[in-house]
Amino acid sequence: MDRMMQSIADKVKNQIRLSKEDGLYLYQSTDLLAIGELARFKKQAVSGANIFFNVNQHINLTNICTSRCKFCAFGVDADENASYVMTPQEAFEYGAAAVEYGITEFHIVSAMHPDMPFDYYLGIVRDLHQAFPQIHIQAFTAVEIFYFAQISGLSVRQVLQALQDAGLGSLPGGGAEILNDEIRSQLCPRKAMSQDWLDVHRTAHQLGMKTNCTMLFGHIESCEDRILHLLALRQLQDEEPGFQAFIPLPFLPENTGLAHLKRTSAVDDIKTLAISRLMLDNIDHIKAFWVMLGIDVAQLAFFFGADDIDGTVYEEKIMHAAGARTGKAISKEDIIALIKEAGCIPVERDTLYNVLKTY
Ligand code: SF4
């Protein structure tokens, strides 16, 4: 171990916060096992041998999107063959059909539809919550919330309050991409910019809602952009806590406007997970989202700082449109088996990380 890595190790062991320079050094280092050991140490301090998962149903209401981000394979124009929009009744039935499988969460993420009014989304949340009050609704990225404010004329706070009154429990972490407006202007100029994204989460936290956060990496950003992104999340969590989990998402180029780029390597995926664990010392959970990482890398991630593998995800469309090679669902039994095989303890949680069952 060289001097810089030793100094970082000392900081981690003594719970001293890592700096931007530390993060950049970790990205430059090829000592993946040393980085992993430190990340595992941090993970053990927070979650012990536990690996969390939940049982949820993804509902993607529409794929018709005015934003057409370059990295997205999900959004389409209304006149394309693959376009769809669920009626409120279809959305309700889609969610209701999963209830018998023991789901504890409806996970609703969609696109920025040009015509559907805010009331459409509000009504779907209200209907699901009234029929299934025991099931947590985690819905709408900060980008969607920001868009709802634009189309309704309400403020972000009013939008969040209306959704909270209708039954929204928490926000997912999507739409953060890379919190750098120069990059956003190139990749997704029509949607919420960095500060808008952060402000939605700040407001949600002020309203008592938990949220998650993400980072889409492996496209046109640099390692410095990634570290600055992590620092922006860490700062918001210091100022207005409410993030439960951070989810690093490797960019999947297939069918996107950046299809000429290569998919990230397993080493980059694992290193980014580990560095996230080390830099985000104030966010408890680091999620290895198997849908994008693949099951094999997600399982390895348990040794590199991850303590969550997301859920059984009954059906997911967004990442699969971009060529996610995983199946669209994984059974609870399979999740439990792959966690145990890694020598960890499978813990079924609800959306807010209350323990439901340890296996
Ligand atoms: S990432 Fe979201 S906002 Fe961008 S095109 Fe895809 S669905 Fe639309």
Remind me, CATH topology of the domain at 3-11 and 19-50 and 139-343?
TIM Barrel
With strands numbered from the N-terminus, the spatial order across the biggest sheet is 9-1-10-11
Specify Rg, calculated over alpha carbons: 19 Å
**Top CATH class of the domain at 3-11 and 19-50 and 139-343:** Alpha Beta
- Major beta sheet, specifics? 4 strands, mixed
Q: Average pLDDT value?
A: 94
Number of helices: 15
Structural category:
alpha/beta
CATH-defined superfamily of the domain at 3-11 and 19-50 and 139-343: Aldolase class I
What does this structure look like?
This protein has helices at 3-13, 20-28, 32-47, 88-99, 118-131, 142-152, 156-166, 181-187, 194-206, 223-239, 266-279, 290-293, 295-301, 318-321, 332-341; strands at 50-54, 56-59, 105-108, 136-139, 170-171, 210-217, 243-250, 285-286, 308-311, 345-349, 355-358. By secondary structure, it is α/β, with parallel strands linked by helices. The protein has a domain at 3-11 and 19-50 and 139-343: Alpha-Beta Barrel (TIM Barrel), CATH 3.20.20.70. It is globular, with a radius of gyration of 19 Å. The chain starts with a helix and ends with a strand. The structure holds iron/sulfur cluster (SF4). Iron/sulfur cluster binds at residues 65, 67-69, 72, 74-75, 111-112, 143, 188, 191.
